[in-house]
Amino acid sequence: MERKPFVCGEKAALRVVEPEDADYLAYCHNSPDVRPWFFTNYPTNSLRQKECIEKIYENYEYVPLIIMNQQSKTDVGVTAFHRIDIVGGMATLSIILPDRENWNKGYGKEATHLMVEYGFDVLGFHRIQLVVAAKNSAARRIYASAGFQEEGVLREAMYQDGNYWDFIMMGLLASDWKQQKKGR
Ligand SMILES: CC(C)(COP(=O)(O)OP(=O)(O)OC[C@H]1O[C@@H](n2cnc3c(N)ncnc32)[C@H](O)[C@@H]1OP(=O)(O)O)[C@@H](O)C(=O)NCCC(=O)NCCS
Questions:
Q1: Predicted pLDDT of residue 1
Q2: Is 136 in the pocket of ligand 1 (CB under 6 A)?
Q3: Cα three-residue angle 84-102-62, rounded to 5 degrees
Q4: Which CATH superfamily is domain 7-16+65-183 in?
Q5: In angstroms, what is the span from residue 171 Cα to ligand 1's centroid?
């Protein structure tokens, strides 16, 4: 069966997560190219991911979408809204491209843009936020290009390789997003 996009861009498309994606999600989270950026110390596995997938379509507190190459329809990563707060209209955004060879090809920037558009225009969020390691320059750049503002520093928030590392809190409001759209 053809993998139809749920949200479509030019280079990237986002498709829904199916039960058989448990292996791919575990692969994304366990990738040695990704773990240092998320400060992930513990592994996950397909069984744990299968349990998460079962809950997605029950309560919509966590909404992941698989990022595909728009042309070839091959999977290149996963993006998600986490901890969705219906009352506050708020969600935390994440993005993972597990294979380094897919970096710097524009997938991250476009997937971020597509999620922001989906979050504000379809889900009606008031605010989208995230935290990113201060040393993760590529990620900070793609979030800034989508309009996220740096709102504060979580000083020495995570430990890795003998050091404590700063994290940056970033946020984007629906009102900022609407202003940006008007200016385009
Ligand atoms: C961060 C990540 C999502 C970016 O996705 P990507 O597809 O590589 O990003 P894009 O190609 O769309 O854009 C990368 C941008 O960062 C820039 N960049 C790349 N490396 C950089 C670096 N070391 N310093 C500064 N900018 C850098 C690129 O020039 C590009 O900006 P531009 O388009 O304005 O020139 C991807 O690298 C990834 O999954 N990394 C591991 C997981 C991770 O860090 N996730 C985010 C955690 S908050």
A1: 66
A2: yes
A3: 10
A4: Gcn5-related N-acetyltransferase (GNAT) (3.40.630.30)
A5: 18
